[in-house]
Design brief:
This protein is of the alpha+beta class. The chain contains six helices and 20 strands. 17% of the residues lie in helices and 42% in strands.
């Protein structure tokens, strides 16, 4: 989530069209769940302003919904500080959900930790990238992944010819910087959008931003040694992948499908490279930006959890069940 991409014109337009844009036919059905969200929000925050932002966000954003392949089970709306901290990455350790955010226009980046059951924020750190990285241009934290007490993040520069792709490591308890590993620009010429770690093996998976025909694999426990490059099969290439998570032998990849509200989640077989669309999601807005994905079974039965940025002031953490799993 980049402040420079905020559509302030859209905000003004929404205010001007506040009355005319209301669907009176469906207002009763929509107001009740909105009010329920605001009531829940007030339980955790006394801020009238934040509650108002939440109300406007949920009320006037096009509603996300189900598709033939995925059921939307839950939607967490984040505004202001929480939105800035959840606009890029998402991962979990079985107890906490971790997130990352980058507002490059404000020279702000950060990490946050949320209680997995309540999704209340319990800790955050801003400007977590060290000076040695920011001075050369590394100002954007992308998709993240948890492993063995550490948070691994894909980091890049948002401007310039050299994107300085690197994997940055943070301590999961303190959210403080630990170390980083620079990667060849020839492998990642347009940045390093995400990382995903297999908890069983300590292998880290990532790929370039556009026209990726392979997935690079690194061994964390061998000082991030490059292990193998696995060819992608089943599709010609992958582009606009914003995040990933390894689960049960597959790397699930969140794609920011351009120009449509329907977003893809791919499944990449880490043994064979065979790749296919696991399910699609309806993010509501055509210009909603799909971000990172994490996987865990929540109490409501949802399993796949994806961040969407609404290109205005808010982010959504949306939780899904694949239809085949719901039947």
């Amino acid at each position: 989530m980049d402040l420079g991409s905020i559509d302030f014109g859209s905000i003004i337009g929404k205010i001007k069209d506040l009355i005319g844009g209301i669907d009176l036919g469906g207002i009763v059905d929509k107001v009740k769940p909105v009010l329920d969200k605001v009531v829940d929000f007030f339980k955790n925050s006394p801020s009238m302003f934040m509650a108002l932002l939440l109300f406007l966000t949920v009320m006037f954003d096009p509603a996300a919904g189900n598709t033939d392949t995925a059921m939307l089970v839950n939607e967490e709306v984040k505004v202001l500080v929480d939105a800035a901290l959840t606009g890029q990455g998402l991962t979990n350790d079985g107890q906490y959900v971790y997130s990352s955010g980058s507002l490059t226009a404000l020279k702000l980046n950060g990490l946050a930790k949320f209680d997995m059951e309540t999704m209340n924020r319990v800790k955050y750190e801003k400007n977590v990238l060290p000076k040695s990285l920011t001075e050369r241009g590394n100002d954007h934290i992308g998709g993240i992944s948890y492993y063995n007490g550490k948070i691994y993040a894909g980091v890049e520069a948002s401007k310039g010819d050299n994107m300085y792709p690197c994997i940055v490591v943070f301590d999961a308890e303190s959210l403080k910087y630990v170390t980083h590993y620079d990667l060849p620009t020839s492998w990642f010429p347009d940045g390093l959008p995400y990382v995903a770690v297999d908890q069983a093996t300590g292998l880290l998976y990532t790929s370039r931003w556009t026209d990726a025909t392979s997935i690079h694999v690194f061994d964390i426990d061998a000082t991030m040694a490059h292990v193998v490059e696995i060819d992608i099969t089943g599709v010609d290439s992958l582009s606009r992948i914003q995040g990933g998570e390894v689960y049960d032998g597959k790397l699930y990849l969140s794609q920011d499908t351009d120009g449509t509200n329907i977003k893809n989640v791919y499944a990449f077989d880490i043994e064979t490279g065979e790749t296919e669309i696991a399910f699609t999601r309806d993010a509501g807005k055509i210009d909603a930006e799909a971000e990172d994905i994490t996987i865990y079974e929540a109490k409501d039965g949802s399993f796949f959890h994806v961040v969407d940025y609404n290109k205005i002031i808010s982010t959504y953490i949306r939780s899904y069940i694949m239809i085949e799993d719901a039947e």
